[in-house]
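Human: Here is a favour to ask of a fellow structure person. Comparing notes only helps if you start from a blank page. I am asking you to supply a protein in sequence and structure-token form. Write it directly below this note and I will take it from there.

Assistant:
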Amino acid sequence: MKTTRTFLLAFCSIIAMAGWSQTRDTVTIIGVGDIMMGSNYPNISGLPPNEGADLFKEVSAILSAADVTMGNLEGVLLDQGGTPKTCKNPDVCYVFRSPEGYAKNLLEAGFDVMSLANNHAGDFGEVGRKSSMKTLDALGIAHAGLVSKPYAVFQKNGVTYGFTAFAPNSGCNNINDLAMARKIVAQLDSLADIVIVSFHGGAEGPTHQHVTRKNEIFYGENRGNVYEFAHKMIDAGADVVFGHGPHVVRAVEVYKDRFIAYSLGNFMTYGGINVSGINGYAPIVKVVTDLHGTFRQARIYPGIQSFRAPVKIDPQKAALWKIKQLTEQDFPQSGLTIDENGWVKKSTK
């Protein structure tokens, strides 16, 4: 009897494992754009009420409903100190320093990994960079994009993910160094099942909504050729590419069965950043791939921001319609369809 019972238990275990593997054939990956949860510099008037605990409250159910959720952390996580950056043009110089305790809002909202590659990651020098990394590490939130931490490898639900991020700014993985970027992505491809790449690139503002396929120069800075960059990263082994930086949304594309969002715009930027009109579009993009990163479908949730208020879902779906329009204009041969519910699919025609 003991032998029979052991055999049955072993058999049931095999069946259970087989059933799991048959149903677990996709992963879901969410990407959003820029996040700045309020700044205590130069004073605390730039901070939200309730220590920012309400900033993601209306969308946390969506953010949490994915295997991996990623955002771009603008500014630093630092209570005090550091050396504020100076700029050649003071009229376009902004520095952001969010309290370290605000990082718990990211965790509670559902974020698993953050990009630290952007023009605000060094707002308070090396002190700020180290504090951001230490604070995220303490909460178990993965991060990458700084020269001192170019990539991250982590596991969720039995799948190994590789993540890296790029920007045209000092202290960050350089978006314009394609050879270096390809090397990082290829290395991640050898270590992970799914490789996610984030970039902070492209010119800023409502006059820069389109993917130009050229190097974009803005305020004298080469913000990269984001079209070439995204394609080269997929050629090197990336499976999903999430862009941000222009503060407005841009088109989406599927290249070699891999998904690209060229700009996810602003997502939750509490003060210090213009969120009027199109600058307030705050999409949540959820990508479904197979276990090897091949695109199955995606869904765009049309978030929106208003001045110093939590991000919420827009009943008018402005971000969705804008991404659909730009995709049709910039990639008319893409074979993608985007419906009124935000589903992005490859055309069967």
